[in-house]
Automatic annotation (TrEMBL):
It is a single-pass type IV membrane protein. It comes from Cyprinus carpio. GO terms for biological process: autophagy. Residues 554-565 have a biased composition (Basic and acidic residues). Plays an important role in regulating the size of autophagosomes during the formation process. It is found in: Endoplasmic reticulum membrane. CDD domains: DnaJ (cd06257), TRX_DnaJ (cd02963). Transmembrane segments: none annotated. Pfam families: DnaJ, Thioredoxin. This is DnaJ homolog subfamily C member 16. GO terms for cellular component: endoplasmic reticulum membrane. Residues 1-17 form the signal peptide. Residues 554-574, 697-721 are annotated as: Disordered. Keywords: Autophagy, Glycoprotein, Signal. The lineage of its organism: Eukaryota, Metazoa, Chordata, Craniata, Vertebrata.
Length: 761
């Protein structure tokens, strides 16, 4: 029962709201009102009821009604539907149209326009924006490439966006004017094109952004027409149009030869360059150089008199090779984009341009498509030296007199386009300059051509001969009896890449600064994060490397020098001892304060055995020197025998072998050839004892502590006959077990001092 009453109330509200809404009454115009009258009234009411200016609580609702009424009455289909049926597809609640309606239990219809929210839905408020709707693939394949010829203004919108409604009147008015200037317009609905919105970096609605040369820039100011127009102008690269006066006009016009472009001068009375002219300069920047003359300046009076300029209307002059006489002229009070485009398109090339890259060659001498669209290229192969000037000027005069659209005149410098010239002059004894008539057959470079015999020096005979050949060509194209495949032309303007890169970097830096000034952190943060992350990683790596390598790289070099001074060895010991540290000099850093995980392998020797043992030691441990955790040193037992005895006394297990000798006390222990693996941090050692392998073949060595030893008494009895270098024969195997971690470890409570030994027995 309650549901029935709710249904009736909703139905009554829908009918009442629909009946009350009359776009003519809202705007206060008659049914016969013209579009101009409706527009005039709308501007007045929109200004009066704009929520930002009108504090009336009903201002927002009234502004929405005014906007919706304007959209209906300015759209012919919607207005006709309302006049005929009293409703449009978006306002009637029970029509047969399917837009905006959803079923409820198969017998109740809910109209989405019931609440009068004119948000972006299909067939809703965005009817006027529908033709500008952008999709991701369309943006990538069409908008981005086209943005290198004209800027794009894109609006980011979404459903249920009140702010989008507020900017709608300004947006429509601005778009209407920008379209006449040739600016691309786009609308992205975040609800349907989230991927494109993320690609553009748009994270809020409404947002307005511009795209030029594939680069996205965001609009940060109040949404008014003047700001949007200025935003478009700021998007364009700098230096598109040069200000020309009486002082620099000759320099500007004479640069045609260096730039290989026609030059266009616009004369107008406004002090700043018109936006339409800047947009034209941007669209044709690869073909034409643009200049602007302010007629209101006294510095331009001579130019106005020289070219007899009418100051009452904008005038456009195009100059080609002749800087004193314009090649074409146009003058009109209402200079429209279509007129300017046609004017520039007809004057994109010089009368006889130089072929400086493949792109120019493709446009000037296109590939033959149909018989009626044949284009023949008359090409002069010449040089840059002064001696060729006469022939070049004669060729230019002939090109200036040409009125046949089928013929295109051009020239190349042999030195700059050597591969091309080598093909055209192949097997020809003719010297420069040389004229070649050619026709391109396909995009792969195949041509038909015919060199004009006799070369070219610009004489009357040469001109007459060339004109005869061209006349024959019109009647019989088969006279082009040579074929060849041309290589791609060299780009002569590659040297300008650095300048363009600097300009691009400058524009990009200016954009970053602009984003920072407007606190547009959401767009700048990814870039700043990347920069700071790279700097942090680089700085951290350098610092860590400096701390980790300082003791490994600097100390060995210093100690090795000191070792060479302290020890008096033969010259051949210097090459082996450079691998090791001298323990008595680097005791603290290489044992007591050795870093965790690092081991110092110490060879015990005496002065007489030093040279032999170090050489043998170097050979045995050479394959292990690549490890960063191993350090190699030697200890002179003649100087530090007490230290050796103190360390081994801590390791009682290692000394069991010599118990009988200790008790007898008859002689001093011989530690020559012992090797200690010292872990300074964990305070343990591994012991290698010398091995006899040279004389007593019947004796069977025993291993202990990772090394091997002879039976008791063998070492003592044979010490006089044992060759010293044989003591380290098994050291390589012991090193392998050390690396595996399978050697017995002897722990010490503390490392004894090197100079003063105090042992607590």
């Amino acid at each position: 029962h309650e549901l029935g009453w709710l249904t009736v109330l909703l139905m009554d509200a829908v009918v009442e709201s629909t009946a009350e809404f009359d776009p003519y009454k809202v705007l206060g115009v008659t049914r016969s009102a013209s579009q101009a009258e409706i527009k005039k009234v709308y501007k007045r009411l929109a200004k009066e009821w704009h929520p930002d200016k009108n504090k009336n609580p009903e201002a927002e609702d009234m502004f929405i009604k005014i906007t919706k009424s304007y959209e209906i009455l300015t759209n012919e289909e919607k207005r006709a539907s309302y006049d005929r049926y009293g409703q449009t597809d978006n306002t009637h609640p029970y029509g047969r149209g399917h837009h905006g309606f959803r079923h409820f239990h198969d017998n109740f219809y809910f109209d989405e326009s019931f609440f009068h929210f004119p948000f972006n839905n299909k067939g809703g408020r965005d009817f006027a924006d529908s033709k500008y709707t952008l999709h991701f693939n369309q943006y990538i394949s069409e908008v981005v490439p086209d943005s290198f010829k004209r800027p794009y203004l894109i609006k980011i919108t979404s459903d249920w966006c009140f702010s989008c409604i507020h900017i709608e009147p300004v947006w429509k008015e601005t778009v209407q004017e920008l379209e006449t200037l040739g600016i691309g317009i786009g609308v992205v609905d975040v609800g349907y094109e989230r991927r494109l919105a993320n690609n553009l970096g748009a994270h809020q609605t409404p947002s307005i952004l511009g795209v030029v040369n594939g680069k996205v820039s965001f609009f940060h100011y109040a949404v008014v027409k003047g700001h949007l127009m200025q935003f478009i102008e700021d998007l364009l690269p700098q230096r598109l149009v040069e200000k020309v006066t009486d002082k620099n006009n000759q320099e500007f016009l004479k640069s045609w030869h260096e730039l290989n472009k026609p030059h266009v001068l616009l004369f107008d009375q406004v002090p700043s360059v018109p936006l339409l002219y800047k947009l034209t300069a941007f669209a044709y920047k690869d073909y034409v150089q643009f200049g602007y003359v302010d007629q209101g300046l006294s510095e331009t009076a001579d130019l106005l008199r020289k070219f007899n300029i009418n100051t009452y209307a904008p005038t456009m002059l195009v100059f080609k090779e002749d800087v004193e006489k314009p090649a074409d002229i146009i003058q009109a009070k209402g200079m429209k984009k279509q007129i300017i485009d046609e004017f520039i398109s007809n004057n994109k090339f010089l009368l006889a341009p130089r072929l400086v890259n493949q792109k120019l060659f493709d446009e000037l001498c296109p590939v033959k498509q149909f018989h009626r669209r044949r284009k023949y290229c008359v090409l002069l192969i010449t040089g840059e030296e002064e001696s060729f000037a006469t022939g070049n000027e004669a060729f230019l005069s002939l090109a200036s007199a040409n009125t046949n659209d089928v013929l295109r005149f051009a020239y190349v410098y042999q030195r700059r386009q050597q591969p091309l010239c080598d093909v055209l002059l192949k097997n020809k004894d003719s010297t420069l300059p040389q004229v070649v008539i050619l026709e391109r057959r396909n995009g792969a470079g195949k041509i038909l051509y015919k060199p004009v015999s006799g070369g070219w020096n610009g004489s009357k005979e040469d001109k007459h001969k060339l004109l005869e050949e061209l006349e024959r060509l019109q009647k019989d194209p088969s006279i082009l009896n040579n074929d060849a495949v041309l290589p791609e032309l060299n780009n002569e303007f590659t040297s300008m890449f650095l300048i363009r890169w600097i300009y691009t970097a400058y524009d990009y830096l200016a954009e970053i600064i602009d984003d920072l000034l407007h606190n547009n952190w959401r767009e700048v943060m990814p870039l700043l994060s990347l920069i700071f992350s790279a700097l942090f990683i680089l700085f951290g790596t350098v610092v860590i490397q400096a701390f980790s390598d300082s003791s490994e790289e600097k100390q060995p070099k210093t100690k090795a020098k000191e070792a060479s001074k302290a020890e008096n060895g033969s010259p051949n010991t210097s090459s082996t001892s450079r691998f090791f540290l001298v323990l008595d000099i680097t005791y603290t850093s290489n044992l007591v304060k050795l870093r965790p995980g690092h081991i110092n392998v110490v060879l015990v020797l005496t002065d007489p055995t030093k040279n032999i043992l170090l050489s043998k030691f170097a050979k045995e441990v050479y394959s292990f020197t690549g490890s960063f955790t191993l350090h190699f040193s030697f200890l002179n037992v003649d100087k530090h025998g007490e230290w050796m005895a103190a360390v081994l006394e801590y390791a009682q297990d290692a000394m069991q072998i010599d118990t009988d000798e200790d008790e007898a006390g008859s002689r001093k222990l011989d530690y020559t050839g012992y090797v200690l693996a010292l872990n300074g941090h964990k305070k343990y050692l591994c012991l290698f004892k010398p091995v006899y392998t040279g004389e007593d073949l019947d004796s069977k060595p025993e291993e202990e502590g990772g090394g091997s030893r002879s039976r008791k008494g063998t070492t003592r009895s044979r010490s006089t006959t044992l060759q010293i270098h044989h003591k380290l024969d098994r050291l390589g195997l012991w090193m392998e077990r050390l690396m595996e971690g399978t050697l017995p470890r002897y722990y010490v409570p503390a490392w004894p001092g090197l100079d003063k030994i105090t042992v607590n027995k």
